[in-house]
Amino acid sequence: MKTNPSICLALMVTLTFPIGAQAQQDDPHIGYVYPAGGRLGTTFQVLLGGQHLDGATAVHISGDGIEAEVIEHIRPLNQGQFKEIQNRMGELRKNIKTAEDEAALTELRQRLATFSIRRSSASALVETVTLQVTISSGADIGNREMRLLTEQGLTNPMVFCIDQLAETTELSGRNLAVTASESRGGRGRKKQQNTRPDPGTSPVEIEAELPTDITLPTIVNGQILPGDADRYRFHARQGEQLVVNVSARRLIPYLSDAVPGWFQAVVAIYDADGRRIAFQDDFHLHPDPVLYCEIPKDGQYIVEIRDALYRGREDFVYRFDIGELPFFTSIFPLGGQAEVATRVEFSGWNLPMRTEFKTFKASGIHSISVRDGKRLSNRLPFAVDTLPECSETEPNNELGHAEPVTMPVIVNGRIASPGDVDMFCFEGRAGDNIVAEVKARRLGSPLDSALKLTSASGDQLAFNDDYEDRAAGLVTHHADARVSFEIPADGLYYLSLGDLQQKGGPEYGYRLHINQQQPDFELRVVPSSINARAGSNVPITVYTVRRDGFADEILLTLVDPPPGYSLRGGRIPAGQDVIRLTLTGPEEYAGKPQSLVIEGRSIADGYELVRRAVPADDQMQAFANRHLVTAKELLVAVTGSSSLPLMNVLGDELVQIPDGGTVEVPISVPSRSAFGEIQLELSDPPEGISIQSTTLGYWRGNMILRSEQSAQSGLQGNLIVNVYAAKTSEDSGKGKEQRKNRRILLNTLPAIPFEIVAD
Fold first, then answer.
1. CA–CA distances in Å: residue 631 to residues 159, 394, 597, 616, 721
2. How many Å apart are CA 653 and CA 708, to the nearest integer?
3. What digits encode the pLDDT tens for the residues 564-615?
4. What is the DSSP string of 434-446?
5. Inter-residue contact 482 to 436 (CB < 8 Å)
6. 473-501 per-position pLDDT tens digit
7. Is residue 537 classed exposed, middle or buried when 0-12, 13-18 and 19+ CB atoms within 10 A define those classes?
8. Torsion angles phi and psi, residue 119, rounded to 5
9. Cα(737)–Cα(716) distance, rounded to whole angstroms?
10. Residue 660: how many other CB atoms lie within 10 Å
11. In whole angstroms, what is the distance from residue 487 CA to residue 81 CA?
């Protein structure tokens, strides 16, 4: 069910085709899952679109209660393959004699049908894998992660939702392309005005199709192609309080080649006469819209969903629930103290209760939901901490009425109306390093906070309205404020907190942390899916988010790893935020993906800090911006056999490279392999460091590393060395010359820790 409005989009920002920046060149990658979820106790088919999916054999889904089986993998034909099959079909038509000949001809026709599919997709979405998915009736409701296991290893994770409502799924854009292609014999689109445009082009006018009938409550799954607006018809009664809760960006957070970098869905409800009675394009400044509508009279209504700019592609996947469903618009407070019962107030629609006591034992971000009979509400984040807490008390808008607090403390408050300002005062001592930080936008509040620190005389000492939290990978507008300041003298100090846009309301909640500096750190390990050939070394990256002046070194280790796994180069030097190191896999094929845990340890102010590295993926948004999007699991897939020759780094762990000089590193690397001559190459080295020369033998050899004068003295880190095989034959001819120059990546040497030292 697709419709294209007649509208000129010639000046619209459109999509371009290459999406490959999201993945390494040959790594298996999925760009969408459709439908992006299913109902408890059902079996249905799911389509995955991506690239480099050859040999897809199994599916890994986080959690229990879901089974999935690979049914089919389609890789569309390219131009050369298309011509070759056309020729074979021509030969068969001349000599059809048996039923086997007819069957062969039918199979070739089906393969030809995939040629037009390539034209209707971006290159990174052109392959598809069909799954048969079964969700048990006892599975937990919520979001899972789905990854595909291929001959090259695991794909990136994608969101897959489990729910309890009945579901409606429209025909996928890929199925539409297959049907159209088959009807044309695989020869491409006819040049008519009633055909669908290619992705990224302006839509053309086509005959509008009838909306799909749905029965409420339900969950609707769909895809938006260029210029499309999907419409669903339902019956509702006067006074019903309908909620339409859309998931689009929550399913696929970032698109590398689209502006603003995600599917920007908008949703509207129309009555039987075509009048729009409700519209929404976001929710509390989050891109996915939530629409609330009280039905004015009994009758038929239409809900419509589209992209705000009429863009579209197969990865513009949506999923929305619609009905008289319980929905939180906000909660207060936004968090509570660990192991203490907190009375939480609920605001929203169709809620069975307005308050409830919540108790959580562990600190961190939890979620809150309520159930109205068999229907579960949406979930909102709830922060749990160990510090003492209090609630702000009005009036506290002026210095004379500032609310006194004692550090350390977390203040739960809200900017209750436009222009409201909350003020707090505390005793400071000379030399204390004070940190005041607002957590609001990161907890779902629309508050765009501004925080100001002043002295008792009113002098401004610090101000901030946007603190970038690099650990919050899904936040693109860092609207939470944070100030840090060294107290110059004993006395009374004031903090004022307001909304930068002068907005406010019951949903504008916050948690204000006030404390002395507490050095700490967080870790992110990239990628969340690691693919390794048996017996090989694989580079991974660990990012550090340093907080409150923490600058010490961090030692990284594997926690209770499966047999055969080890890290090399697991040290993040003091003051550095990122390190590349290598993971060594076992010598034998593992059979199934293994879960790994990486831990970082350090000492700060005499205390040992132990923090687990959170799995994440480095995703690009809108051609340029990059974000670390966290995942539930760090998984490694070991494939193939350990037929690679022994490759290692010999000698001391730390290599000291003289500033402006060279150093010899003994290595165990053969001079040749079955694929050709061995070549060594540094992968993304620091500026000024290079391999000057190599001498390779049968068992042992050496590599000369050079540091130019441009290299920074004292610099520390790891060097990653890739081992390639290259043909050295004297074959002639353009095609052979191209093949001769293609190198094969055989392995990566274990990470080489280095330091630039004075000569």
1. 10, 41, 13, 5, 28
2. 22
3. 999 999 999 999 999 999 999 898 877 789 999 999 999 988 889 999 999 9
4. EEEEEESGGGT--
5. yes
6. 999 999 999 999 999 999 999 999 999 99
7. buried
8. -70, -20
9. 40
10. 16
11. 72
